[in-house]
Amino acid sequence: MSTSPNPPRRRLLARGSWPEARVVGDILRTETVGGMVLVVAAALALLYANSPWRETYFDLARFTVGPSALHLDLSLATWAADGLLAIFFFVVGLELKREFVAGDLRDPRTALLPVVAAVGGMIAPALIYVAINASRPETLVGWAIPTATDIAFAVAVLAVIGTSLPSALRMFLLTLAVVDDLLAITVIAVFYTDELSLPALLGALVPLALFGLAVQRGVRSWWLLLPLGAVTWFLVHESGVHATVAGVLLGFTVPVLGRHTVHGVSMAEHFEHRWRPVSTGVAVPIFAFFAAGVSVVDAGGLAETLADSVTLGIIAGLVLGKAIGVLGSTWLVQRFTRAQLSDEVSWWDLLGIAQLAGIGFTVSLLVGELAFGAGTPQDDHVKVGVLVGSLTAALLATVLLRFRNAHYRRIAEIETRDTDRDGIPDVYQEDGRPDDG
């Protein structure tokens, strides 16, 4: 009696579909430009904050504008953190919904790896930070600072080093970062809300529902949607929950599927194309300009700052914690699902991606301000820790990924070859590919 052959093992990090690869490519091209602007904004902030004119930088950050009657007389730095970053999280909400509703991640088997890797990539840095700060209970509030990933900064690093990552790795990095951002905003809402006004929070559901009803019916008129979004943001801000949560909630209401389209694309894709350049090119760089400026002299000297447990916890969390969390989670998924890595991907590639995930700039700085308060000595140590940790992770990722760049170029040539010139690379039209996953 003949026995049936063993079924092929499922492949992790296999090449996805062409539509998804195309969307991810478009997103990463936009993020590359935004990442460059982000790096320039952070560098300007550091130079300005350590120049002879540094007092004018901090005076500008503290300059207050807005109606006091509505409790919106906020500093420019607060407007950047609470207001502009809401745009960033709106795009995150759109992107995450598209991935899980219409993207390759609608398949739970495909979604499992980046989601578990994102969770592991948050748990391990938090545990390392807590271990280093265990003897200082007053600093434990900063446990979530090294848990975030800044996709714009990470993609900027990829652009600078000139590596050609395979589409599967690019998709994994992008998805991990997006899930990471969603988890981060959840942590902010749950753990960094001091006082909660339930009437204001419930009141925010009304304009949120009206916004959702409008976009579900295909309405895209700015004069209607912007006021509804602004009122939602205001009421969430008044509730005590960080106002950026409103951005994610608004993004979740926009339909990914349905009969209403704009020039042949879904409402979510239309809004994403409109708002991603604003997020990456304006909102995030302005926030970085106000958040990244730290005066080394005022912080007590670089050597003393680097020796502080808050700084050390953040650096270790970003550099070691992210690598341990992402790699360990991937190994666990492989172990318990009995899957195996795609032939085009090695554990060295994953280590490089894990180090890129240790670039935790934007959201890490935001969590640091929420944890310790803007302008405090601990906040200055947070900024130094985030900057040093992110730069160290970027340098390690550069070494690892450049080492494999010849391999990546061979894969990129395969993934871009289009012999029939129909606009779709040949590899995405082949039947029976071993990496269909």
Helix and strand arrangement:
Blueprint: E1 11-12, H1 18-49, H2 54-62, E2 64-65, E3 74-75, H3 76-101, H4 108-132, H5 151-161, H6 167-191, H7 198-216, H8 222-239, H9 244-253, E4 261-262, E5 265-266, H10 267-291, H11 302-306, H12 309-337, E6 340-341, H13 347-356, H14 362-372, H15 377-403, H16 405-416
Parallel strand pairs: 1-6
Antiparallel strand pairs: 2-3, 4-5
Describe the structure.
The chain is mostly helical and 437 residues long. It has a single domain, classed as Na+/H+ antiporter like fold, CATH 1.20.1530. The chain has 16 helices and six strands. It has a two-stranded parallel ribbon. The protein has a two-stranded antiparallel sheet with strand order 2-3. A two-stranded antiparallel sheet has the order 4-5. The longest helix has 32 residues, at 18-49. Mean pLDDT is 87; it is low at 431-437.
